[in-house]
Structure formats: C-alpha cells, structure tokens
Amino acid sequence: MTNVLALAYMTDVMGIGATVAGLLIASLKLYDVFADVAVGWLSDRTNSRWGRRRPFLFAGGFMLGLSTFLVFGFGSIVEPSTGVIYMTFALLFYFTSYSTFNVPYMAMPTEMTQSYHERSYLMSFRVIAVSLANIVGSALGTYLVAKFGGGAEGHRAMSIFVGLIVLSASLACFQLTKDAPSTPRHAPTGQSFIVQFRLALQNKPYFVLLTAKFCGLVLFGFQATFPFMFTRVLKVPFSWLSIYYIVMSLSMIAVQPAWLWLGKRYSKKALYAVSLIGNSAVYLTWLLAAEGDPVWTVIARAIGLGVFGGGSLLMGQALLPDAIEYDRLRTGLRREGIFAGMYTTVEKLAGALGTGASGVFLGLMGYVQSRGGVTVEQPASAITAIYISTAVFPAVLQMLGMIILVRWYDLSPEKLKQAAASQPAS
Questions:
Q1: Among 161, 159, 154, which Cα is nearest to 373's?
Q2: Which residues contact 351 (CB under 8 A, 6 or more apart)?
Q3: Where in the chain are the domains?
Q4: Exposed site from 8, 106, 175, 230, fewest CB < 10 Å?
Q5: Can you tell me the distance from the alpha carbon of 29 to that of 354, in angstroms, rounded to the nearest whole number?
Q6: Cβ proximity of 145 and 158 under 8 Å
Q7: pLDDT of the residue at 426
C-alpha cells in the first residue's frame, strides 16, 4: 500500500513537490540500514518464554497498525509548509514498525525446516500472503480511497480499515506460530557485532542473491508511478487500479502450484532467471499503453506480471533460507536474524530507491503537483517520464538481476550437502 500510494498521496493530496517527496522517501530508507540489521541482531540474542523472534512479532504488529493511520490519516490537517516535517516522523515510525515485525518474521523459515525443497513449499505461503496483501493494500486500498470520496478523507478512511487488518494479521501470526519449530540462540562466542557482521559478508552466495534481488525489488518502488499511468496516461478512474491489482494478485496465487512443481524438477536458480526475463517482457508492453485502450490489455498485463512475478518472488524467497543455512554450516553460528535484517534492508532500500527515483524523475521532467486531488494538465515531458518509469526502468533492472544471478550464484543442493558433510558430528 505504501509503495503504491505514498508518493501520489504526498504530491496530489498534501501538496508536496514530487522531487521533494521522492527524495524524502529514499533518504529515510537509509535509516533502515541501521534498523533492520539492529533488530535482526537483537532477535538473534533474545531469550524469552516466547522464543527469540515472536516477541518482536507481537510488538511490531501493534506499531504497524498505528503507523498506517499516521502516514495516511492527516493529509487535510497538515499544511504543505509543514507536511515534509510531519511525513518525516510518520515514515520513520512506519519504517521502525515494519523492521520490528518483518526482520524476525523473515528469520523464522530457516529455523522451521532444513529440507531444500520443503523451503520452497514453505515460502510459497509467503508469496500467497504477499499476493493477498496486494489485494488488501493496493486493490482494496485504492478502492476504499475512491469509495470514501478520494483526497484526504478517502485516504484517512482507508488507513483506518487497512490498519485494523494489519494489526489483526500481525497478532494472528504471533499466535499461530507458538508451536512452530525454532532454534535457541547460539552460545556466546565473544565476537562483537562488527566481527560477526564482517564474517557474514564472506557468504558469497548470499550476497550474490542479495544483489540480484535488489535489482528485482527496485521495481516494486516503481509501482509508485502506476497511479499516474492509470489516471494521467490511460485516463481511467482511480478505481481501475483495484481491478489491476486484484487480477495480478489472484494470478500470482493461482500459479504457485505450477512453480512448485517446476521447482522439484528444475533448478531454482534457472526458474528464477526465467521469471525475471518474463517480468521484463511484460513491463515493456506498458510502452504501448494509451488512452482508450480496451480493458483486456490491462487485464493481460496483470495476468502476465502475476504469473512471472509469482515465480520470481517464490524462487528468490526459496533461495534465501538455503544461503542462510550455508552460513550456519560454514561457521557454526546461528545468525538468521542478521541475515534476515540485511535482506529486508535491501528489500526496503530497493523499494525506496524505485519510489524516490520515480518522484525525482517526474519532478525533473516537469510533473505538476496539486492539492486535494485536483487534476492538473501535465506537460508532454511528464507523460514521457511516466512511460519510462513504468516500463523501461523496471524491465532493465529485471534483466540486470537475471545476469548477476546466472553469472555468479553457485549454491546448489550438492554444495549444501558437501558443507553439511564437512561438519563434525555433534
């Protein structure tokens, strides 16, 4: 929801310039470099009757529910002159909340199973959850904004509704993982955080995967231009975004069994590369979009991105626990939290870079901001920027990620087995 709506909310509701809004989102993400890794390190070292990770799920859930309202609930109250200051603090609280929940959450799957293929199956549930989140946050979110009159009032009503869903889902996750397999913290090694972090940097497969994922995840930030593509280029109602995200998300859910079936027969790495190529091809079709296009063209793009996006999400997520397990086999340290923290840092930095670059690019190309949802005629240069941000940038980044993955990622099931066999018997 934040990736899709925040930039347009700041420019078209709060009256903040596109360049300033984009730079604000991108610069605040630098804070996550500290927050994510710090939360991961803390969860690695936590001892409680709820385990290492679950206390963070509990606290983060409450914080996230509140942060949703703080980000989207005050557009008509805060003046443009103070809007940047207010959004700085609101977004900082949101980022902290997300780190508190998401980093320990991402560390838990590695503890739940050591089976190479079962990890793919486990991660398919996260992809389904991401797809449902697209429906709730993006599709339902944009629908609720329109349903409640658009502008500041529409965003406020939407934030309350979605915030309650976020809170409920977070607390359900906390409760339903009470019997999940987990691992205790490793015995104290006397190594400082800096030393452990330096050792983590030596995990080559993990960082190759992280680099490839970064390229792919930047495109999620470029989703910030989709409201502009629909309302300024296609010139259709804002509610069309709801249809688009519902179709894409349902397609993503529907193809998970097929990708899992393929994952048992072919390399996860190869399937990840294929899905990235497919994503790139579909994104490039947005260059053909124009006012008056039939609905089926939007639906077809949504299905294509659901199919290939579902594959890239699943295979990328399935490779992550393998790389973290490789570190444990190599060093004997249980540092799932640190690795999950670095992963989510990159995940959010990539999204922020895409969102920030979109805002800066739109501003440089002459996009005219407004206040209260008023439609303003845009210059041809701004329309060109929308096309490039929606189609070209994501396609190029997907192909770059594919090249990095194919060229340098070398962690196979055989290499994991060799690492396991080299460990002394406990």
A1: 154
A2: 3, 29, 217, 218, 220, 221
A3: 2-177+200-417
A4: 175
A5: 11
A6: yes
A7: 44
